[in-house]
Amino acid sequence: MSEPLLSIENLVTEFRVEGGTVPAVNGAGYQVMPGETVGVVGESGSGKSVTVASVLGLLPSSGRVVSGTARFAGRDLLAMRERELEQVRGRDIGLVFQDPMTALNPVMTIGEQIAESLRRHASISRRAAATKVAELLAEVGIPSPKERARQYPHQFSGGMRQRAMIAMAMANRPRLIIADEPTTALDVTIQAQILDLLRRVQREHDAALVMITHDLGVIAEMTERVVVMYAGRVVETADVDSIFHHPRHPYTRGLLRSLPRLGERRDELPAIGGQPPDPRRLPDGCAFRVRCDLSGGRAECGFQPALSEVAAGHVSACHFHGELAEEGVA
Amino acid sequence: MTALDTMTTSAGPPEGQGSLSPGQLAVRRFRRHKVAVAGLVVLVLFGLAAIVLPFFLDDPNAVDPTAIRQGPGDGHLLGTDSAGRDVLARLVAGGRVSLLVGLSVAALTTTIGLVLGAVAGYYRGWVDAVLSRVTDVVLSFPTLIIVIVVVAFVGPSVPALILGIGLFHWPVAFRIVRGLTLSLREQDSIQAVSGLGAGPARVLRKHVVPAVVAPLTVVATLEVAQAILLEAALSFIGLGVPPPTASWGNMLNEAQSLTILESMPWLWLPPGIAIALTVLAVNFVGDGLRDAADPRAAR
Amino acid sequence: MLAFIVRRLAISVVVLAGISVLLFVLLQLMPGDPAEMMVDPFSFSGDRAAAVQQRREELGLDQSMFVQYVRWIGEFVQGNLGFSYSTQRPVTEVMLERFGPTARLMGTGLVIALLVGIPVGILAAMRRNTAVDYGATVLSLVAISIPSFFVALIGIYVFGLKLGWLPTAGINSPGGGGFVDSVRHLVLPAAILGLALAGPYVRYARAAMLEVLGQDFLTTARSKGLARRRVIGRHALHNALIPLVTVVAVQIPTLFAGAVIIEQIFAWPGMGRMALDAVRARDYPILLGFVMAVAVLVLLCNLIADVAYAIIDPRIRLSGARA
């Protein structure tokens, strides 16, 4: 097997707040192979977005990576100076954000915003950049790309904006695309088109894709491997079939049970019972134990469960993963 | 960015302490604001001085032709002015005037702003459109010039000053109240109440007032500072508090003579410093109150 | 965009008309009969009552209020604002004479306020919660809190009387004195006027920049690998300027208020000093001319704000609707 493209280990990130710090990521880690599609799923606040922001140096000023490693193609991202990291961002790794309205600069044309990324990472003329922009816009399915490049974000529809955002992320043919809730802000009908587009450009560019989402439907449709996060930690990792048919963590099982019926649409994962824990007051031991229907107040849950391999390529952080194996499919 | 979103949506009360009421939290935030606390101390001291000191000082208007423009020293701690009046006594009396003007204007502007803002927010439509347009114009018209015109017609006096400033300084309060009333109207509580036939006065009392108390306190505080500054400026150019009543502004008026400016600093430094310190203290308190009232707007 | 400007202009005209009605009513409330004043009781010989009556008819004061207003506004539009009570000269002529010095003082003050206030505010926002930020915030509050006339007195005391570096009165030395002399006279009053306005500008600029620094598209810009300088200079600044242009323009009329005070202290022969003299002499036509000039400036600044807003914000420029 080849080297992983992206490898995050034991990442700890905290935020400065009034009167102290709050941990947002508590030792999370996962790997992404070249060309692979990985889904990262969890409730809001589980640290899935902060993990990505941490390794790319995109944390807000109140955030700080405390410890951990993050390697991209063998290079340590966390040890890089800002200058070096800038070379990676946008060239080797492209990002697609959730809300294309707020993620695009309202006072610059779409074309300028894409060209800016091109010209940052390659010395090409303005004219050549403009040609490339039109090609990229055409590639993501925007009609009359030359004219559209001269327009501003507010003149684009939501779906078109997200297409432009994808064109921007793809501009320098990155080896990794990270899409953070890329369809959450869009209409249902547009969502499918955007997912199709992401899949297509990923295949054509032979890039790896990390899909950050709370939508298990997106996970099922798009990804090969799934990382489940809870309270700043990874609680389960497996290929998509195993996750959906043989979950070995009670949190994953809870997520699957709460899946909306066909045709029903929900914006957030339905509660598993109880709230996600307050990151300032995480319970001792297993962070999930207060909401866990498997714990039953057993003493083991007072200790932090380690990630252990429960089957080939299947890792779970639950003391009682064996019990779930016996139960079979929920 | 999403990373930040996740933080703010999952973060509860910002301090993580147990069961303090919002009021207690606000007090705590205010006390952490050190310059604001210092400002409050200064104001309390000045206020006490304005109340207590007159009992121990000369009559601020007592003319003494035998002791004109005397430097600080025996009998007159801060010296005497061109009419032989005690500068310290006039300084304290001027403080009372500043306080009176500042507080009256703040009360007047917040009341006008509250009523007009609530009316605009409650009735919406053309009432709101007209009031908002008027507000835009009043807001961009310099108050000092309006008061100069008012004084030109009715002559300078303390009531003219208070009315002149107060009647044209309400737009800030108006905008806050209007905005809050509009958003309250969208909420069920008021719709339910007004559906049951509650009049605007009741809605104002029961719903609008409690919601705007905190931001209006901040506005009122900053209003005190601006009113004191305006009073001083107008008195300085002779269109504010008319003599012989002492005011910090008209005490400085004398300093326009280069002789006094150069050789009698006791005549102009104390009132100038008093204005600056008072206004600065009020503004610091206002800043502290703003942060205490709205932690999200905090630095 | 043209439709947008035309609409704004139309609103300005309506507002100006409203102000003119207000001023006209004030004019009627003025104590004293202008006709009486124009016929000097001491030097006039003959039938004074008849002369006054003739004057009244000449001035149209025997007509109804409405007719008088229409005539007054007609004259106003043609630039005729009446005659000064004290000098009998046309108000327009007096004002034009005073306009130059005031424009020089206010213009320089505005430039100083912008050059100091905006960069300091933006720097404070970028260095949020550092000594730079605290220093800028406290200093801006100090600038807002200390009355400009007190600063002016201190300035005269220090630079004029003690150090003797700068002149402290007038627009230039008696008998003129060339460019350098004018500049030396301008420095102190313009700097004091400008620094007073720089205080609020620092706060606006800081707030506008902080608002933008929290926006998603800056993260996008950084995710493209853009250098910090370009993220701030190209993406953040342009967006921060949009709200800033409005407050900066709308604040310009407050310079007029500041100029009234500063011109008084520095014996600056501008419109502010003219207005104060008019108040003392009860020269109402001059005073009303001054107020009308301020009103025009207020509306002009509002209009400038709207147009500038439309120019730098493509959402307005292209749709014609204000966000």
Plain-language structure description:
Chain A folds into two domains: 224 residues, Rossmann fold; 97 residues, no CATH class. Helices cover 33% and strands 23% of the residues of chain A. Chain A is built from twelve helices and twelve strands. The longest helix of chain A is centred in the middle third of the chain and has 18 residues. Chain A is globular, with a radius of gyration of 20 Å. With 299 residues, chain B is mainly α. In chain B, α4 packs antiparallel against α10. With 323 residues, chain C is an all-alpha fold. Chain C has a domain of 180 residues: MetI-like (MetI-like fold, Orthogonal Bundle), CATH 1.10.3720. Chains in contact: A-B, A-C, B-C. At the B-C interface, α5, α6, α10, α12 and α13 of B face α1, α6, α7, α10 and α11 of C.
Structural class of chain C: mainly alpha
* Rg of chain C (C-alpha, Å): 25 Å
Integer average pLDDT of chain C:
84
Helix-strand pattern of chain B: HHHHHHHHHHHHH
- Estimated share of beta-strand residues of chain C: under 5%
Per CATH, what is the topology of the domain at 98-277 in chain C?
A: MetI-like fold
Counting DSSP E segments of at least 2 residues, the number of strands of chain B comes to 0
Spatial shape of chain C: flat
* Biggest contact: B-C, 43 and 53 residues
Strand content of chain B: under 5%
